[in-house]
Amino acid sequence: MSGDPEHDADAGASALFAEGGSLDPMSTRAARATLRDKAYLDLRRMLMLGGFPAGTALPVRKLCEELDAGTMPVRDAVQRLAAEGALEALPNGRLRVPLLGGSEIEELFALRLLIESHAAARAAETATPSAMAALDAALTALEAFALPDAVDSAQLAANLAFHFAIYRMPGSPQLVQIIENLWLRFGPLLNGFMAASDGAQTYRAEQSVLHRRLVEAIRMRDPEFARSAMKAIIERSRLAAQDIGML
User: Fold this and answer.
1) 2 in helix, strand or coil?
2) How far is Cα 199 from Cα 201, in angstroms, rounded to an integer?
3) Helices (DSSP H) in the chain: which residue ranges?
4) Which of 126, 227, 245, 247 is most buried when burial is the number of CB atoms within 10 A of its CB?
């Protein structure tokens, strides 16, 4: 190891694709592209999980450590996410997770109500036994976390997995991509709802009941019930945002 993350990443890529002491330049470019894509997807997922709260500054060096990636893949990842609006460039050239204003958060909830409730209705129409088994497993994993415990990355990951088990049921990559883009902006708000406080404990307990109702609606193959159950989950999140002064 050289101590230089960029050099080490390139060296690792070269070692991965080199055979017999010779190096294929096309393979090297493919390896670097793979490293860039991995850094982008890993950072994207961390934002969706709520790994970086709104307003968090994201120096490239810190992200290299977080993502275990080289400088160039990370720079490429943050540039792509900034172009998508998931990161915000500051006047000093640094990047941070955007701080959304009240009207922006209101619009985000309005879009989630429209699109995610549609996805839930479609899930009820298309659910298969294997998809239901996966959803039941995702709900069990989410409910395994004790309510008094502080929220950590594992619980946020379980929450994300539960929701996207539903959104993937209709088999529409376009729908999933649209919802992922919403969660890029919603994820950084999650810690505010789910932090270990009295109000957050009530929120998490109520959401647990609503999650079970949604699963039953999908199991019953009742699209309108599933639509209303998903709306109730998102509306409860909106109320939580209002309670903590986000709106």
Assistant:
1) coil
2) 5
3) 5-17, 25-49, 60-67, 71-83, 102-126, 129-143, 153-167, 173-186, 190-194, 198-219, 223-243
4) 227
Give the integer Cα–Cα distance in Å for 143 and 120.
Answer: 20
Residues 50/188, Cβ–Cβ less than 8 Å = yes
Residue located via tokens 């193959």:
221
**Model confidence pLDDT, tens digit, residues 89-144:** 888 888 999 999 999 999 999 999 999 999 999 999 999 999 999 999 999 999 99
Residue in 210, 245, 197, 33 with CA at minimum distance from that of residue 116: 210
Only one residue has tokens 């209101």, namely 106
Q: Is 81 exposed, middle or buried (0-12, 13-18, 19+ CB in 10 A)?
A: buried
- DSSP-derived secondary structure letter, 96: E
Residues in the chain: 247
Angle between helices 198-219 and 129-143 (to 10 degrees): 170
Which domains, and CATH codes, for the chain?
A: 5-96 (1.10.10.10), 102-243 (1.20.120.530)
52 Cβ neighbours under 8 A, 6+ residues apart:
46, 58, 97, 188
Long-range contacts of 24-32 (CB under 8 A, 24+ apart): 32/72, 32/73
Q: What is the DSSP annotation of 32-89?
A: HHHHHHHHHHHHHHHHHHTSS-TT-B--HHHHHHHHT--HHHHHHHHHHHHHTTSSEE
What pLDDT is recorded for position 148?
57
